[in-house]
Amino acid sequence: MHHSELKYYFDNEELYFSTVPERYDEIYLRLSRQGARVLALGHRSLGILSNQQLREQHATRDSVECNLDFCGFVVLSCPLKPDSKAMIRELRHSSHHLTMITGDNPLTACHVAKELHFTRKPLLVLTAPTAKSNEWKWESVHKDTHLPIQPANIRDLTRQYDLCVTGEGLAYLSTLPIYFLNTIMPHVKVFARVSPKQKEQVIIKLNNLGFVTLMCGDGTNDVAALKHAHVGVALLTGVAAKRAEQQQDNTTNSTNAIQPPAVATVTPQPQILTPAEIANRNREQAKKRLEELYKQMDESEQTIVRLGDASIAAPFTSRTSTVQCVCHIIKQGRCTLVTTLQMFKILALNALILAYSLSVLYLDGIKFSDGQHTLQGLLLAGCFLFISRSKPLKTLARERPLPNIFNLYTLISVLGQFAVHLTALIFVVNEAHKRIPPRTEEFVDLEAEFSPNLVNSTVYIMSITLQIATFAVNYQGYPFMESLRANKPLLYSIIFSFTLVLSLIFNLLPQLTEQFQIVLMPDDMRLIVFYVVIGDVILAYIIDRVLAFFLGQAKLKEY
């Protein structure tokens, strides 16, 4: 006796079943709207046939999967992961555009999208022609709203509703004018019942529209989309991590457990077993050990990356199956981007300051000693080391960092700060020249050995102060990384550098001043240098923060 059995998603039941129950549509629609995965089961007896007769009469799949007797529904419930809502909420709060691409039924996908707050507006599903209506249309989940596929005003449609498109609907939209597809594509919150090839097409389309895409997938059917996304994240099951956490919890519980008071016990007499019972017990123990060994092998194999897995195509792979890793990647990426941009600003300012100090002033006979260069290099090296070790914040900010260094904020900020530094440096040099005897020779001997004087000591102190100040002024901090107060190593490095500079200005450590060949300044010159340094840092900070307020944030893409 041969039988034909089938499980499938519930649509197009007339192609498979000879008859269906009266409340068939009502039940599966209600279950699907509640977020369940619904499969229909069918059965058919093919009779007693030989293998030859079976091949001749049922050579194709369609001849087998027809005229089935309806057996019932299989309802599968897959609860949401505990942290999914929190992670999606954080991504929405950080001004990211979220889209679900799944192979599940559109009604189930719409329910999940609503639970996770992918959508804030009512959802419309692109519905294929039916026996009652021979045209494509937008239809609500509860079938109480019907709109034509191309309304008179597309903007009104996308302003009032979020959209859900099936794989079949996506194929149909590709036949319409390209302008219509480009307009509604960013407003499609759910792509349901799509094939792996269509997932790839969705990512490519969003890339072409100017979006920076991050694709998160956990299966082989996501490989193509992961490869074409700007950032691909593969999810694996963290069995080993979970097992370690469970062991740690068990150890903690056993350690913290209250030991019961000791009581007197009577040791029972050992039970005498027959040889058959002993052999049976040994077999049971060996069987249990073998089952535990197989279980451990299966769990360890689940964490191994296999060829064809999503992890092969994705540059990032998470051992856990939650989207929490996406938030970590974005946080660290923003922190790295901001650190890189502020590093370019600091390098540009320091290069401009050194260029003036070692070129124009060098022609005026001003130079630094080897010891001064060494001290300056050590102080700057500490600041560069600690500024590169900044950590991201624990929460994603709504603001976005600037994507590259070529922007108005960076250019104007660098030029404005350099103008302030240059003015301060020129002013201090002129004040120092007034307090030394005028030069008698017409031309400066550029090959002469270093000889400390008031001018080169003043220029050295100003140069090292301005370069250290660029770290304090241009450190980005909130909202993309920890603040300067939280970055203790960098804060202490800057404070130490400024303290050392003040000790050189006011000769607080005479031995140190003599070691680095800094001449003693007159009292009025010390105050001038001190006030100029304070004013320079404050003015440079104001310029940078005002420009950051007006020009320092990336604009969100409008669609």
Structure explained in plain terms:
This protein is of the alpha/beta class. About 2% of the residues have low confidence. The protein folds into three domains: 75 residues, no CATH class; 111 residues, no CATH class; 219 residues. The protein is elongated. It is 52% helix and 12% strand.
Structural key phrases:
four-stranded mixed β-sheet, 52% helix, 3 domains, single chain, elongated, 12% strand, 559 residues, alpha/beta, six-stranded mixed β-sheet
Layout of SSEs?
Layout: E1 2-9, E2 17-19, H1 24-33, E3 37-47, H2 51-57, H3 61-64, E4 68-76, H4 84-93, E5 100-101, H5 106-115, E6 123-127, E7 137-140, E8 146-148, H6 154-160, E9 162-166, H7 167-173, H8 178-184, E10 188-192, H9 196-208, E11 214-217, H10 223-228, E12 231-235, H11 239-256, H12 275-302, H13 310-313, E13 316-318, H14 324-363, H15 370-387, H16 408-433, H17 454-474, H18 488-505, H19 510-515, H20 523-551
Parallel strand pairs: 2-4, 5-10, 6-9, 9-10, 11-12, 12-13
Antiparallel strand pairs: 1-3, 3-4, 6-7, 7-8
Summarize the structure.
The protein is an alpha/beta fold. 52% of the residues lie in helices and 12% in strands. The protein is elongated and about 120 Å long.
